[in-house]
Amino acid sequence: MKKDKDNNTPKRRSTFAILFYINRTKVRKDGTCQLLCKVSIDAEWEQIGTKVSVNPDIWNPEKGHADGRSANAVTVNRAIDSLTAEINEHYEDIRRSLGFVTAELVKNAIKGIGRKPSTLLALFREHNEEFHKRVGV
What pTM was estimated for this model as a whole? Predict the structure, then answer.
Protein backbone atom coordinates (compact mmCIF):
# COMPACT_ATOMS: atom_id res chain seq x y z
CA MET A 1 0.00 0.00 0.00
CA LYS A 2 1.25 3.44 -0.85
CA LYS A 3 1.39 6.23 1.66
CA ASP A 4 -0.51 9.41 0.91
CA LYS A 5 1.87 12.39 0.80
CA ASP A 6 -0.48 14.84 2.53
CA ASN A 7 -1.45 13.10 5.76
CA ASN A 8 0.82 10.00 5.74
CA THR A 9 -2.11 7.56 5.87
CA PRO A 10 -2.11 4.41 3.75
CA LYS A 11 -3.83 4.94 0.41
CA ARG A 12 -6.02 1.99 -0.63
CA ARG A 13 -6.56 1.02 -4.23
CA SER A 14 -9.79 -0.84 -4.87
CA THR A 15 -10.11 -3.81 -7.19
CA PHE A 16 -12.50 -3.25 -10.07
CA ALA A 17 -13.56 -5.78 -12.70
CA ILE A 18 -16.32 -6.15 -15.28
CA LEU A 19 -17.33 -9.60 -16.51
CA PHE A 20 -19.88 -10.41 -19.20
CA TYR A 21 -21.47 -13.86 -19.38
CA ILE A 22 -24.62 -15.54 -20.63
CA ASN A 23 -27.20 -17.45 -18.64
CA ARG A 24 -27.23 -20.83 -20.39
CA THR A 25 -29.77 -22.29 -17.94
CA LYS A 26 -32.55 -20.05 -19.26
CA VAL A 27 -32.74 -20.53 -23.02
CA ARG A 28 -35.51 -18.55 -24.73
CA LYS A 29 -37.87 -19.97 -27.32
CA ASP A 30 -35.76 -18.58 -30.16
CA GLY A 31 -32.65 -20.37 -28.83
CA THR A 32 -30.89 -17.29 -27.43
CA CYS A 33 -29.70 -16.57 -23.88
CA GLN A 34 -29.65 -13.31 -21.95
CA LEU A 35 -26.37 -11.42 -21.62
CA LEU A 36 -25.52 -10.54 -18.02
CA CYS A 37 -22.87 -8.26 -16.56
CA LYS A 38 -21.10 -8.76 -13.24
CA VAL A 39 -19.39 -5.73 -11.66
CA SER A 40 -16.90 -6.62 -8.91
CA ILE A 41 -15.40 -4.02 -6.58
CA ASP A 42 -13.38 -5.03 -3.50
CA ALA A 43 -14.75 -8.61 -3.37
CA GLU A 44 -18.35 -7.37 -3.57
CA TRP A 45 -20.26 -7.90 -6.79
CA GLU A 46 -23.55 -6.93 -8.37
CA GLN A 47 -25.25 -8.46 -11.37
CA ILE A 48 -26.68 -6.20 -14.06
CA GLY A 49 -29.10 -7.63 -16.58
CA THR A 50 -28.82 -6.33 -20.10
CA LYS A 51 -31.62 -6.38 -22.64
CA VAL A 52 -29.45 -8.17 -25.18
CA SER A 53 -29.94 -11.75 -26.31
CA VAL A 54 -27.01 -13.84 -27.50
CA ASN A 55 -26.88 -16.99 -29.57
CA PRO A 56 -24.95 -19.42 -27.32
CA ASP A 57 -23.12 -20.90 -30.32
CA ILE A 58 -21.29 -17.63 -31.04
CA TRP A 59 -20.52 -16.69 -27.41
CA ASN A 60 -16.84 -16.87 -26.41
CA PRO A 61 -16.58 -16.98 -22.59
CA GLU A 62 -12.79 -16.51 -22.55
CA LYS A 63 -13.00 -13.20 -24.41
CA GLY A 64 -16.36 -12.11 -23.01
CA HIS A 65 -17.50 -11.24 -26.54
CA ALA A 66 -19.43 -12.85 -29.36
CA ASP A 67 -17.38 -14.37 -32.18
CA GLY A 68 -18.07 -13.73 -35.83
CA ARG A 69 -19.58 -10.98 -37.93
CA SER A 70 -23.25 -11.94 -37.83
CA ALA A 71 -25.88 -9.33 -37.00
CA ASN A 72 -26.33 -10.81 -33.52
CA ALA A 73 -22.57 -10.79 -32.83
CA VAL A 74 -22.18 -7.16 -33.94
CA THR A 75 -25.17 -6.07 -31.82
CA VAL A 76 -23.89 -7.94 -28.76
CA ASN A 77 -20.33 -6.63 -29.05
CA ARG A 78 -21.53 -3.04 -29.48
CA ALA A 79 -23.76 -3.39 -26.42
CA ILE A 80 -20.83 -4.78 -24.41
CA ASP A 81 -18.54 -1.94 -25.47
CA SER A 82 -21.09 0.78 -24.68
CA LEU A 83 -22.02 -0.74 -21.31
CA THR A 84 -18.35 -1.11 -20.38
CA ALA A 85 -17.71 2.54 -21.20
CA GLU A 86 -20.80 3.60 -19.22
CA ILE A 87 -19.75 1.52 -16.19
CA ASN A 88 -16.22 2.96 -16.26
CA GLU A 89 -17.61 6.50 -16.51
CA HIS A 90 -19.96 5.99 -13.54
CA TYR A 91 -17.15 4.36 -11.54
CA GLU A 92 -14.87 7.38 -12.02
CA ASP A 93 -17.67 9.88 -11.30
CA ILE A 94 -18.63 8.13 -8.06
CA ARG A 95 -14.99 7.78 -7.00
CA ARG A 96 -14.37 11.49 -7.57
CA SER A 97 -17.53 12.69 -5.83
CA LEU A 98 -17.70 10.33 -2.83
CA GLY A 99 -14.12 9.15 -2.52
CA PHE A 100 -15.16 5.49 -2.41
CA VAL A 101 -17.04 3.14 -4.72
CA THR A 102 -19.17 0.06 -4.15
CA ALA A 103 -20.64 -2.32 -6.68
CA GLU A 104 -24.15 -1.36 -5.56
CA LEU A 105 -23.48 2.34 -6.19
CA VAL A 106 -22.30 1.57 -9.72
CA LYS A 107 -25.33 -0.65 -10.39
CA ASN A 108 -27.71 2.03 -9.11
CA ALA A 109 -26.01 4.64 -11.28
CA ILE A 110 -26.41 2.40 -14.35
CA LYS A 111 -30.07 1.72 -13.56
CA GLY A 112 -30.75 5.41 -12.80
CA ILE A 113 -31.73 4.85 -9.17
CA GLY A 114 -31.13 7.84 -6.90
CA ARG A 115 -30.52 10.23 -9.77
CA LYS A 116 -32.11 13.66 -9.83
CA PRO A 117 -35.14 13.87 -12.09
CA SER A 118 -34.30 15.46 -15.40
CA THR A 119 -37.76 16.28 -16.71
CA LEU A 120 -38.61 19.88 -17.37
CA LEU A 121 -41.42 19.91 -14.80
CA ALA A 122 -39.13 18.49 -12.09
CA LEU A 123 -36.42 21.04 -12.84
CA PHE A 124 -39.02 23.83 -12.74
CA ARG A 125 -40.24 22.65 -9.31
CA GLU A 126 -36.68 22.50 -8.01
CA HIS A 127 -36.00 26.01 -9.32
CA ASN A 128 -39.16 27.37 -7.67
CA GLU A 129 -38.28 25.73 -4.33
CA GLU A 130 -34.81 27.27 -4.36
CA PHE A 131 -36.19 30.66 -5.31
CA HIS A 132 -38.88 30.41 -2.60
CA LYS A 133 -36.12 29.98 0.01
CA ARG A 134 -34.45 33.21 -1.14
CA VAL A 135 -37.62 35.35 -1.04
CA GLY A 136 -37.36 36.22 2.65
CA VAL A 137 -33.65 37.08 2.49
Answer: 0.72
